Fold this sequence. Notes:
By secondary structure, this protein is of the alpha+beta class. It folds into 2 domains: 132 residues, no CATH class; 295 residues, no CATH class. Helices cover 40% and strands 16% of the residues. Strands 6, 9, 10, 11, 12, 13, 14, 15, 16 and 17 form a 10-stranded antiparallel beta sheet that branches. Strands 4-3-2-1-5 form a 5-stranded antiparallel beta sheet. Helix 5 packs antiparallel against helix 6. The longest helix is centred in the N-terminal third of the chain and has 46 residues.
Amino acid sequence: MAIRVSNESPSAAQAAAEAARRAAEEAARRAAEEAARRAAEEAARLAAEAASSAQGSDAFTSTSTPQGPSLSGETVPAEGSSLLIENTGDGSVNCLDGVGDVLAQAAPDELARSEVLFLTDTRPGAEGETGHVVIHQGDHIYDPATQQWSESADYLRDHPEYQVAGTVPGEVVHSILSAEPGLARQAALEQANLPPHLAQMVVADVGGGLPEPRWLEQGSRPPWFNAAEWNHLVPEDKAAILDEIRADWASHVEAMEPPWMREGTAPPPLSEDWDQLSPEQQQERALSQWEATVQEELAFYFGEIPEGGLPAEEPLLLSTNGAPWGQGMSGEWATYHQEGQDPIAQYLNTGLILGGEGDDYTHGNLCGELSVMSVVGLGIAEGLQNFNALGLTTQDGTAILSDGEALTNSTHLEEFFRQNGWQVVGEDGDGNAPAMKDLNGGHSAANTYNNNHAREPTSEEVQRLLADGGALTVLVNIDGAQDGMLASAGDSADDITHWVSVLAVSENAQGETYVRVYNPYQNREEVYSWEEFQNAWNTPSPSEQGYTYVAARPPETSTDAP
């Protein structure tokens, strides 16, 4: 008997093949799910063991760390995390924490419209070892690292280092992160049935870390690096160079940190309403100010200092000694500025400060006193009253402050430092604080015409003195026609001999040296190349040849005897 086969119907062989294919696909799917489940169980077991080990090591020692910038400029260190092991309440801040917080606070309709993008990081080195997550909602993307919304197209264009690995509905991610890490989290992941590469993806991009220039964020060539040489490097060598740049930047910021950050103490008053703030608000404001200072320093460290220097908008002294240092005509500087007087911050109504209402007169040469006060941390009224009480062999403090044109030399400033307990360079110390070396490495500074002079000081010698805990006040030339900016005596239109304090001498990312000074002329900090600073310091006036300075060390500072 013949069998007729319809063209529309599969043959028995075809049907069998199709059934076998489907069976193979189903078996592969089940095998993949089983592998993912076992991997998840193993990761959960290891995480639980690690947590148990950490808790058992010392039941009386807290392992939590307060959030905020640390010595390296990061928040609490955040290791790589994933949907399986992320604990949003552990105090460690990463992108999953940020996404989880936003989803947890979202209204139901917002949550329904949200999806989480899982991004792989294509950068070489440590940056590319973990991915990143952001929230996609309509035409916008929220990045938890910056805590800002951006147009989706703009965000993806500005971050070519990221590639979308997959998306997960926001409701699903919220449900997973809401479950406690461990068995409950594992069950939530199994119910979500995510692709394994998303369920197990490790992410760790952290908000609140050190700012970086865009080329460093994207793992690109440093601007000063020869393009041809860079292109010939293998990815590993490029990554090593970028990682070293990041490490040097972190070390630079660490060296800048004010004492209250290093020691965990309360920050200094940063505003007139400081006492009205709670300790938490004070800490928040101080951290915000510090972050602004670091952000500005980014431009100094990775950029070029323009010829003639430039003022710093975010003063280091503000974070170290509090307001109103470095903030121009504000606070006490405004209170004690006589109406109608030239708009120069250091022109203060000394008569009002010392004699009270009705005893008004402006002193025009307070740069030495103010430079020392900025270092010691005295307020305007307190500091000038302190100087007024000096009994000097040549001219006492009262005589200097009562004469609106009287100048100060290094002898006056040294005595001012001593009155506040500081040790002056070259003086004999004790067993805990040996004699302080001068800029040239000796213990006896030459004293000519009542001023100390260094012999061709190098930037390394100044760095050494500052790193030893010393303060350095130097006599420079400023240009009155250029708002008191430093300039060599031969280059300025209005030469003025002037005291300033050196706050930091640093090398930028390109190995060039720059100097940050506090200049009381307009109560601000300024940044110069080492060469321009040295030229202004070298010959401040025809009567003062050489590098004139006063160096001192606070009483609590001690160094090893040389």
